[in-house]
C-alpha cells in the first residue's frame, strides 16, 4: 500500500522552495484522487487567509472558502465541508506557529482514515513551507496585503515567529502596525528546560528605530547563544547600544527566562514594557523593580528578580504603544480598557488572544491608525506535566 504522507514528503523535498504548493497539488491529486487543492496563507495582521494556487478565485467562491478556512485556522482542527464533492480544510501549523490552511477537495466523503492522512500531509507541507521561507519571497509576498516600509521589513525578518507550542506552555506574539512598525519587537528561544522571552519598547520610529532594535536584539542573541544568562544578555546589549550612541538612544526592555521544569521565572526589567498576570477573570499587574533602559549609561549592571507561575496562569507583556495608547479625548488604554480585553480572551488560546487584544486596541482608536508601535505577547503556562497538571 502506498504511504501517501511519505510520498508527499518526498515530493516536497524534491521541489524548488517556491513550488511547494504546486508539488503538493500534483502528488495529492495522484495519490488521493483529489479534484483540486489550494493553500491559504495568513497575512501579517492575521486578518485574512489568501490562496496561493488560485489567486483569481471568483469573489463569491473565495468568500465561501475563506469562511470555512478561517474556522479551520481558528480552531486548529480539520473541517469538512460538503458531501460530494467533499472539501477538507486542514491547519498548516508547525511547532505551534499557524501558517495557514490546506484545502483538499475529494470526490467522496472523507472517512477518518482519509482525514488522518490529509492531516499528516498538511503537517509535512507546513514544515516544508517554514523551511522554504528563507529561500523564496513567494510566501512573504502572499502574506502582505499592502506595501511594507523598510523598517517593518527589518522587524519582521528579525522575529522568531508568531507562536510556539510546548507541552508546558503556549506562547504567541503580535506586532502592529504590521506594515509600518519601527522599533517595538519581541524575541524568544526554547533551549532544553529554558524558555527565554524578550519584549522591547523601541525608541523612535522608522528606519533609525528599526536599526537600534536590530542591534539590541542581536546583541542579546549573541550573549544567549554564547551561554550567557539574562544578566549577561542585558549587559552586553546595553554596552553595545551605549558605545554606539553614547546614551543619546536607549531601549526599554523586559527579559524573561522560564524554567520549564518548575515554572520559576527570572526577570530583568530594564525600564520595561508592562507585564500582567491573568488568573481566571482577575487581571493584575506584575510589579518589578525597574532598572535602567539598555544603552542609557556605560557599563550598567543589572539584577535578577524572580516570580513563580502556577498552572493555568497567563502572562501578557505589552509595549507602551498598547499600555499608554491615548486616542484624542480618551484615557490611556492601560487604565481600564485593556484589562477588559484581556479578560475577554480567557477562553481563547494564546495565538487567538494576542489578535483579540490588538483588535480591541484598534477599536479603542475608533479603527484609525495607531499612533505608536504596539507589541502584545501572551504566555499560557500549563505546568511541567502539561495541561493535565492544571
Model description:
- The strands form three sheets. Strands 6-7-16-15-12-13 form a six-stranded antiparallel sheet. A five-stranded antiparallel sheet has the order 2-1-5-4-3. A five-stranded antiparallel sheet has the order 8-9-10-11-14, covered by helices on one side.
- 36% of the residues lie in helices and 26% in strands.
- By secondary structure, the chain is of the alpha+beta class.
- Helix 1 packs antiparallel against helix 2 (20-32), helix 1 packs parallel to helix 4 (112-132) and helix 7 runs antiparallel to helix 8 (230-245).
- The two termini are 43 Å apart.
- It is globular, with a radius of gyration of 22 Å.
- The model has no long low-confidence stretch (mean pLDDT 91).
- The chain has helices at residues 4-14, 20-32, 59-75, 112-132, 138-143, 150-158, 206-225, 230-245, 320-323, 337-344, 350-364; strands at residues 36-42, 49-51, 79-81, 86-94, 97-106, 163-165, 169-176, 185-191, 194-201, 252-259, 264-270, 274-279, 282-285, 305-308, 314-318, 374-381.
- A hairpin with a 4-residue loop joins strand 10 (252-259) and strand 11.
